């Protein structure tokens, strides 16, 4: 039996679907001809506006339910009758460190509820969001999926690693089909502009727009492997469609970019003649290097990143400027 889901006419549940990545998955599900897309999001970080496009393009297809994956009854109600579940709802790494019990309840217990409901209601496949955080600071580069998870020391990474184990055990116990995707450094439109855990790129755009240099925490030699949010959403759809189960894949560009290079690229894209400044390094997630091997996703899912860093940054700046223009100026 094929583990691939035909998305045309499919009924999907997207947990965390009002967030950065989830809302792009919802857009692409509408474009793929899904019959029904239900978003379950408690809006702790996600925004209703992130679904504007999907609601406009897929009237009657997309429905937002403001609710929590910790609410067992809601999760079961919304999972009934679905062909596929995209599970994204989670707290960010920084919040997990600050509120580990809430993280346990949301990332671990909440994920258990999502998987339990998927099994009980005969969902064909779960596509789950994991993270490069499961590796911690890797010992080998480019890092393959076979790298061990014992260098991770974050609660977030521990929860994501446990979720991957939980998925495998549900396959062994109940025959659940799933694919888990380990995203590396995600960026793109709908990144959280207003939140406390705002990404470094947003802070830099704010500073550059105000004529101030971007502030790099640490020496800037730390590298990341940036992957655009639309490429990630496409990986999710391919993971659902592919005849692949019980597998995890790195989702990244497969290229490393230092923070200093990133700041310089952003300055270039924003036409700013400034020199980056340096500040004290972050305490959580002090991973100094990331570079993924993305061979497996290419070979087994037919996925490859399509949006290069410069193109992606240009789109991000454009989106961010439009967001700024939409915010009313403060009254004097
Ligand atoms: N952004 C990254 O760099 C990155 C990297 C690796 C993995 N991931 C994973 O990808 C997934 C999506 O991340 P994102 O960047 O879109 O984050 P996001 O914060 O924009 O989206 C997560 C969504 O989940 C919702 N949510 C949180 N707790 C919930 C709960 N208990 N019940 C219902 N909804 C809840 C939030 O409101 C938000 O809309 C997450 O699982 C995240 O861990 C993200």
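Q: What amino acid sequence fits the structure above?
A:
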């Amino acid at each position: 039996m094929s583990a691939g889901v035909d998305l045309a006419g499919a009924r999907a549940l997207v947990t965390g679907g009002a967030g950065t990545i989830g809302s792009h998955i919802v857009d692409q599900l509408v474009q793929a001809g899904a019959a029904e897309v239900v978003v379950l999001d408690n809006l702790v970080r996600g925004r209703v506006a992130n679904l504007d496009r999907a609601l406009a393009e897929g009237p009657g297809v997309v429905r937002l339910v403001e609710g929590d994956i910790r609410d067992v009854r809601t999760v079961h109600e919304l999972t009934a009758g679905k062909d596929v579940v995209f599970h994204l709802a989670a707290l960010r790494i920084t919040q997990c460190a600050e509120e580990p019990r809430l993280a346990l309840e949301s990332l671990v217990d909440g994920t258990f509820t999502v998987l339990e409901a998927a099994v009980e209601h005969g969902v064909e496949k779960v596509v789950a969001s994991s993270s490069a955080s499961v590796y911690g600071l890797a010992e080998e580069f480019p890092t393959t999926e076979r790298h061990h998870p014992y260098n991770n020391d974050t609660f977030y990474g521990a929860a994501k690693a446990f979720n991957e184990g939980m998925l495998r055990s549900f396959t062994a116990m109940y025959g659940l089909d799933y694919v888990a995707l380990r995203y590396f450094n995600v960026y793109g439109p709908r990144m959280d502009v207003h939140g406390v855990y705002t990404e470094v790129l947003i802070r830099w755009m704010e500073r550059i727009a105000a004529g101030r240099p971007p502030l790099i925490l640490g020496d800037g030699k730390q590298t990341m492997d940036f992957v655009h949010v639309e490429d990630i959403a496409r990986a999710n759809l391919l993971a659902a469609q592919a005849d692949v189960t019980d597998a995890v894949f790195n989702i990244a560009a497969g290229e490393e970019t230092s923070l200093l290079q990133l700041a310089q690229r952003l300055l270039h894209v924003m036409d700013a003649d400034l020199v980056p400044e340096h500040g004290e390094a972050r305490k959580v997630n002090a991973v100094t290097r990331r570079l993924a091997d993305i061979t497996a996703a290419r070979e087994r899912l037919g996925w490859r990143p399509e949006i290069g860093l410069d193109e992606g940054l240009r789109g991000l700046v454009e989106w961010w400027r439009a967001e700024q223009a939409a915010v009313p100026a403060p009254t004097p």
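Q: And what stands out in the fold?
A: The longest strand covers residues 125-131.
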